[in-house]
Amino acid sequence: MIIFELTESEAHPAYQEMEIANGIRQYDFLRSIVAASISLGRPFLSQQLLKALNFHAIACLHTNAGEFRPCPVTVGDYEPPAHYRVQAQMDDFTNMVNRNWEGADPVALAAYVLWRLNYIHPFINGNGRTARAACYLILCIKAGGWLHGQTILPELLKENRHEYVIALKQADESARVGRLDLSALHTLISKLLDIQLADIKTEEAPDNNTSGS
């Protein structure tokens, strides 16, 4: 069953309910992968992992869940690379990430992953959800564990969509002229991480108004 094929609308209640359920499953899977990567001492980004993240995001919502897209797609006024170029670009992308894993600044590497996956747009659907999850994977593994907070970074990026899209477009423009600049995306991720982690401090703060009388 592919819900979008039956309803032809992402606004249909059945689609919306499955999207929420898939999101929960994707985060559970992501948390497990972070724990396994740290436990095994094998921090790396694989195409199999990215496909699994995409599968959890769009299973039963769209065709080709967890598979690289077999056809062209458009995203608003942006036309991603041709589908026959996806495999080669994903090879280069994952190799680049893994070569720079140890020495890269965590936020810089996460920003690159977030931008590049959106740029290649390797899947039929769920590219944004997959990119945000992969970005968070990088940050958590580099930090040595799951980063907690009332609202985690992937959700904060969604909530700040306008600023997020502007940062992605700025990176796109810089890439077109051969000078990739991820500074706007780096700044946004840093700001939202501060918000997420501030929530933890608020939760853990003692209640100074408690009376001993």
Features:
213 residues, Fic-like fold, 0% strand, 9 helices, mainly alpha
Overall description:
Helix 2 (13-40) packs antiparallel against helix 3 (47-58) and helix 3 packs across helix 6. This protein has a single domain, classed as Orthogonal Bundle (Fic-like fold). It is an all-alpha fold and 213 residues long. The protein has 9 helices and no strands. Helices cover 64% and strands 0% of the residues. The mean pLDDT is 93.
What's the layout of helices and strands?
Layout: H1 3-7, H2 13-40, H3 47-58, H4 86-99, H5 106-120, H6 127-143, H7 153-159, H8 161-176, H9 183-204
First-to-last CA distance: 62 Å
**Mean model confidence by pLDDT:** 93
Helix count? 9
CATH superfamily: Fido-like domain
Number of domains: 1
Helix content: 55-70%
Query: Would you list the SSEs in sequence order as H and E?
Result: HHHHHHHHH
In short:
By secondary structure, this protein is mainly α. Helix content is 64%, strand content 0%.
